Amino acid sequence: xxxxxxxxxxxxxxxxxxxxxxxxxxxxxxxxxxxxxxxxxxxxxxxxxxxxxxxxxxxxxxxxxxxxxxxxxxxxxxxxxxxxxxxxxxxxxxxxxxxxxxxxxxxxxxxxxxxxxxxxxxxxxxxxxxxxxxxxxxxxxxxxxxxxxxxxxxxxxxx
Length: 159
Fold this sequence. Notes:
The chain is an alpha+beta fold. The chain has 2 domains: 16-69, Winged helix-like DNA-binding domain superfamily/Winged helix DNA-binding domain (Arc Repressor Mutant, subunit A), CATH 1.10.10; 72-146, Lrp/AsnC effector binding domain/regulation of amino acid metabolism (RAM) domain (Alpha-Beta Plaits, 2-Layer Sandwich), CATH 3.30.70. It contains 5 helices and 4 strands, in the order αααβαββαβ. The chain has a 4-stranded antiparallel sheet with strand order 2-3-1-4. The longest helix has 13 residues, at 47-59. The radius of gyration is 20 Å and the shape is elongated.
């Protein structure tokens, strides 16, 4: 018996969301600008019912906000990089603050392993990237990989 494509590979845990909530999240992930009326039509509900569902998802913290996806290259930042950052001993909180204050770092996660920070950096030149990394060099060791492309765009996990 041939397995369905979704059954092949690693199996992930099921979400605690019901099918309607999952459809709402999927639609909003595809287009966060949908009006409640459009969302209601897409999921086969009334507008008041879908509005209440969205409010409950927000109150529960499942939906944290509505956002846009901006191509940073289109706004003057053609170079994107992932930077692993390892603070020198005793400098963890200082380095975290420096990352937060540097506008070129558009995202940063705390991770396990030797390098506690993994940051996404956007700059308009290699020289600017050098300047940003140099600003950390007194307090941290960095390892940088320039992003050539994106194989998987940010997406929802299986709901």
